[in-house]
Amino acid sequence: MKIGVIGFGAASIGFLSEVIDENHEIHILERSKDIFSSSISGIRSDGKIFVSDTMGGDMEIPLSIQKSVVDFYLEKLHSEDKLNVKTGTSFDRKSSFFDLFYEKGFEPVNSRFWHIGTDKLGSVLTRIFDEFSKRKNVHFHFGSRVDEIDIEKERIVLRGEGFEAEFDYVVVAVGRSGHSLIKKVAGRYPEIVASSNTVDIGIRFELPDHVVEEINNEMYEFKVRLKTKTGYTVRTFCNNPSGKVVLENYDDFVTVNGHSNSGGSSESTNFAILCTTRFTEPFRDPIGYGSYISRLSNILAGGRKVILQTYEDFIQTKRTKRLGRVKPTLPESDFILGDINLVLPRRISVSITEFIEKLSEVIPGVSYPDNLMYAVEVKFYSNKINNGRYKNLKFIGDCSGHTRSITYATGHGRLLGSSLKQELALKRCP
Fold first, then answer.
1. Cβ distance 160 to 147 under 8 Å?
2. How many Å apart are CA 338 and CA 375, to the nearest integer?
3. Strands 25-30, 138-142: parallel, antiparallel or unpaired by DSSP?
């Protein structure tokens, strides 16, 4: 069987680890120019992996598979680097923070965490690539951006600039950054979309380490959800103690994200505060909605930049003109001081404000006036794909709309690879 895999990230790594020994002819098409510049994969940034049955996506990934995924990545570290992996448990029932958050209306999310660190992820990804590329049946094609997917009777045709290729079986694993390809395919083949009504929009929040030192020391990554008065659910995501804020680059806009090295890289903690926005008929383009808000923030920032505002100025709805005690970890060339209220819809702004004020009741100092807000952060995993529609075209990982993490994306790939092996084994039986 000739298999095409679009994208070399967490999901495709999971898939390949299951099928690589089956002697299929496998071609991986990655738009980056080489493995060292590959940015499509979430495992390039921070490297937080976990085991949890309450977060990471809306599909069921058995805990045993999640743990095997964690072990897989940890095994790729050098011996000395394994000693620097930070671990923690988010909201163990014995935690004193559990009751504090619960009393204020939050839903504490339980999970076990391992943090590899951005500085170690390049070698992890390179080591995985080296192991895969040594196989004679595996072929990597860097600089190969897929722009079109044509579904024929028995074959799938992939087209990009300067190439066209046919495959018996195609796996799409382009992550969040591949939202434009997913949107194009869904527009041409709408029957693959199971649902399309949700997008997460919010900000990246930055504050001094000492404010959240106690909770960072206990669990490293704290995850909570809050049902706000607007009806929207707001949550924390991707907490980075002693980390830095960075840009996340897409084809036609930039958003904001965060990461942390294994030994820390600043004296500030950053995390996302995301508002889950659900739409009703007739609207069916949440990716377009999130993209529009992202582009609007860039327009107001004067280019491929984001907007930075102090919390005090945000709640007073006035433009930030000067900063206080908290210094931004994002380079000055990547932001302008401005007013995020000009970008976020009021219902989202109100929800985020309520979340921060409630959070400060549990962790005093979260609502300090000079804490920083960067806009916008958007998570594009809103189109949920029906993988049962076509037998030889599958979508895995965050681009499928069913996962939201390295662990779940890799696990999703493993489940698909295992399913394909079983299917082919049954066909070979007399």
1. yes
2. 10
3. parallel
Using alpha carbons only, give the angle 290, 292, 295 rounded to the nearest 5 degrees: 110
Q: Residue 204: how many CA atoms within 13 Å on its side-chain side?
A: 30
Which residues, 6+ apart, have CB-to-CB distance to 280 below 8 Å? Answer: 197
Identity of residue 13: I
| pLDDT tens digits, 128-148 | 999 999 999 999 999 999 999
Q: Which domain holds residue 6?
A: 2-77+117-195+383-428
In the three-class reduction of DSSP (H, G, I as helix; E, B as strand; rest coil), residue 20 is classed as helix
Residue 196: band (very low, low, confident or very high) from pLDDT cuts 50, 70, 90: low
Using the structure block, give the residue that is written with the tokens 């029906």: 386
Q: What does the pLDDT look like over 68-110, one tens digit per residue?
A: 999 999 999 998 899 889 888 999 878 889 999 999 999 999 9
State how far the Cα of 108 lies from the Cα of 331, in Å rounded to an integer. Answer: 33
269 and 373 assigned to the same domain: yes
Q: Are 393 and 149 in contact (CB under 8 A)?
A: yes
Residue 53: count of CB within 10 angstroms of its CB: 12
Task: State how far the Cα of 293 lies from the Cα of 297, in Å rounded to an integer.
Answer: 6
DSSP symbol at 189: -
Rg of the chain in Å (alpha carbons)? 21
Whether residue 354 is found in the same domain as residue 400: no
